[in-house]
């Protein structure tokens, strides 16, 4: 929260912020009532309205969407979005339960199916429908670890090789250790303002020019397909419906790569790759920084980490850095338009946002 305030170019009075949206799944695996009021107090403005937003791993994207709606409706002109999660000081059993309740309980969690297991099924099905996928999954891991090595805030800041990724111990076949996001602690914060308010504080605001969301059946056996997430598809369709640019105009994407297969599915669900072509696109190098369509320049969930409630907020923070030319050695040259994509659980909810250096 302090860094969000410090990054305002011309300074800001904390009492000027009118509302707070706190995104978090829980606190070390437990629920804490009224957590948003604590966040407002910590921020130094205990009187403002504050609410907690929870949509599993997509909590951050939905908190951003609520903030954008509050501003777009004219109800507020300056709001704070905070995402946080503290995951590492929890027992393995507690963590399995805590993450597992964001999936189906009767058919998945109680049967022993973890999120790695669900995405493992998706990867196996994708390979059955479109051909071998191991090299592309490893390329996602190698690329995102390489990007994470350029991000001082990343959980993992060490590059890995394609061989290391492919030969890693299995977690949920065909997914191995380097196909999984880690269990991370982290926090991120954003100030969302009406354009005229933002311009009082900076000459280089980043504009939110599209917002979309969708949902789907919680249990995977109730979904239409295992090789696409319809919640993501619906969210992207809504975000692009009135957007001032098209998919081909995007300079980079921040997508929800909780497992490497999820990055391939995202490229297809968001409509930037044809069905079945994301593996080839990835292996061509197009999604690397410097490629035609960089994906996850901050290291993604794979290397930056996945502190559940913080993830969707931190994706927008990366866009803020990149679109202002402040991403240092991982800067996507000339970045002016970007997309964030945040998924809840194995695809029961998704939020997509579009950003630009120019207002709509
Ligand atoms: N990627 C790369 N390295 C990882 C890693 C990951 N995802 N997870 C752990 N490691 C490394 C650790 O840094 C450690 O390395 P070190 O020995 O050099 O210090 C080593 O592997 C063992 O770490 P540990 O924490 O004991 O691993 P683990 O076996 O308990 O957990 C996973 C590994 C993959 C099971 C765990 O990271 C996981 O559950 N990830 C998925 C989380 C999830 O489902 N989130 C919700 C998504 S929808």
Q: Unreliable stretches, pLDDT < 50, 5 or more residues?
A: none
Q: Could you give the count of β-strands?
A: 10
* Amount of helix: 25-40%
SSE topology string: HEHEHEHHHHEEEHEHEHHHHEE
Oligomer: single chain
For this structure, what is the CATH class?
Alpha Beta
Summing up helix and strand content along with how strands pair, one would put the structural category as: alpha/beta
Shape: globular
Mean pLDDT: 96
Question: How many structurally independent domains?
Answer: 1
Q: Estimate the strand proportion.
A: 15-25%
Instruction: Let me know the largest β-sheet.
Output: 4 strands, mixed
The Cα radius of gyration reads 19 Å
CATH evolutionary superfamily: Thiolase/Chalcone synthase
Name the hetero compounds present. Answer: coenzyme A
Question: How many H/I helical runs?
Answer: 13
Looking at the structure, the CATH topology is: Peroxisomal Thiolase, Chain A, domain 1
